[in-house]
């Protein structure tokens, strides 16, 4: 009898389903949280343990391989321009959908459960005074060891690029250093593959806690918002990212299928960090140069949060409609500008979408207290926006690679064929 081999994606889905079932059965039981929390926490800590070393080593190797400061600078400018265009489209789409669907209209505020948002207050206060100029200044680290310890991605990226350029500039003397980082990067990818083996257990714990805390019944009064957000995310991926993919001769559905393992994991954990190492590795195998994959994807985690900005626009209108506040066109345009700047200014902060909203709602006359009504299901919404962020950043890597005429189509096709063979053999 042939032994059935379950793929990682199938194992994660099983963990997800079991987590939902267990969470629903033991809804409101604090003992379940005590039992399951360590499972989710250990998995997330394992992922955070490897993210910084992988980004640092891969970026140093990639940039040292390019060796040309002008070439790296050109890639950086094109990447940031692309990110700004796509995230602005996401915000506008969110506002259009929010104005058409009116998710907050007709909902009785008394039927909604209020959740404390005090834990986000400190980060929001920082965000109000942390604009685009501050972000640019803070890209340059004063102490790289401190940045590595905190996991501040932008300073790490900046130092990695400079260090990689330095290794490339010194020629033969830099070869031993380059070989060291090449070995370190490969070793960390091996560690990543080992950590992924416990992903289903981590997903089971994280989902079980989420469902047991708010219960499935909490979705009923906020169902309109949840359906609107998920519908908007699907529309954005199929239409906007679909058109972008078509422009670079890629089918968006085939691309999503390629990323299915990472998308299921990102969706289940509501954390894009969990898949960052695998996305970098997969895009390189798909035909993107190491230098571009190592730069675009980590940078995108700070500057290209498509799903998050789309959600923020819808959530802002939802709260305004909940309070019966009409936002004129000029006010909504102002909201677009503020969201576009603020979302970059505090990139990397935990619960970033929530913090951005707290920092910006007041500037357009929307009560910040309204966020308390959606805080309870924010994780459910976070799952969708995290998955969209992953698709957006992965596609950005391909777009920039093709824009630079460095995409290896033959390598990408061979990798897809190889994945198909593995899928068939596992049946």
TrEMBL record:
Transmembrane as UniProt keyword: yes
A GO MF label: symporter activity
Location of this chain's protein in the cell: Cell membrane
GO CC terms, sorted: plasma membrane
Keywords recorded for this protein, A-Z: Cell membrane, Membrane, Symport, Transmembrane, Transmembrane helix, Transport
Primary localization class, coarse: membrane
Membrane topology annotation: Multi-pass membrane protein
UniProt name for this protein: Glutamate:protein symporter
Keyword Membrane: yes
């Amino acid at each position: 009898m042939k032994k059935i081999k379950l793929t990682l994606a199938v194992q994660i889905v099983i963990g997800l389903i079991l987590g939902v079932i267990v969470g629903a059965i033991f809804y409101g039981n604090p003992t379940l949280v005590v039992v399951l929390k360590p499972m989710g926490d250990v998995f997330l800590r394992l992922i955070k343990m490897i993210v910084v070393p992988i980004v640092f080593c891969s970026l140093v190797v990639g940039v040292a391989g390019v060796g040309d400061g002008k070439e790296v600078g050109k890639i950086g400018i094109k990447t940031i321009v692309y990110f700004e265009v796509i995230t602005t489209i996401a915000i506008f789409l969110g506002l259009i959908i929010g104005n058409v669907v009116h998710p907050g209209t007709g909902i009785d505020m008394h039927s909604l459960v209020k959740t404390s948002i005090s834990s986000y207050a400190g980060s929001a206060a920082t965000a109000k005074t942390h604009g685009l100029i501050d972000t640019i200044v803070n890209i340059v680290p004063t102490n790289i060891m401190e940045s590595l310890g905190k996991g501040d991605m932008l300073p790490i990226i900046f130092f990695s690029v400079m260090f990689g350029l330095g290794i490339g500039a010194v020629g033969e003397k830099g070869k031993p250093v380059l070989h060291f980082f090449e070995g370190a990067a490969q070793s960390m990818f091996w560690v990543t593959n080992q950590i992924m083996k416990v992903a289903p257990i981590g997903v089971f714990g994280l989902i079980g806690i989420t469902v047991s805390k708010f219960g499935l019944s909490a979705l009923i009064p906020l169902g309109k918002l949840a359906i609107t957000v998920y519908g908007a995310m699907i529309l954005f991926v199929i239409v906007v990212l679909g058109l972008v993919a078509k422009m670079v001769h890629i089918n968006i559905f085939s691309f999503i299928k390629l990323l299915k393992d990472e998308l299921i994991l990102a969706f289940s954990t509501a954390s894009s960090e969990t898949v960052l190492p695998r996305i970098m590795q997969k895009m390189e195998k798909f035909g993107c140069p190491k230098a571009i994959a190592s730069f675009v994807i980590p940078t995108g985690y700070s500057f290209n949060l498509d799903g998050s900005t789309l959600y923020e626009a819808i959530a802002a209108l939802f709260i305004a409609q909940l309070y019966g506040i009409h936002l004129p066109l000029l006010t909504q345009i102002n909201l677009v500008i503020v969201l576009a700047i603020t979302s970059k200014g505090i990139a990397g902060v935990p619960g970033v979408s929530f913090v951005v909203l707290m920092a910006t709602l007041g500037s357009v006359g929307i009560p910040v207290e309204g966020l308390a009504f959606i805080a309870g299901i924010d994780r459910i919404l976070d799952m969708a926006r995290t998955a969209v962020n992953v698709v957006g950043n992965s596609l950005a890597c391909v777009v920039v690679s093709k824009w630079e005429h460095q995409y290896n189509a033959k390598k990408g096709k061979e990798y897809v064929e190889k994945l198909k063979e593995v899928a068939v053999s596992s049946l």
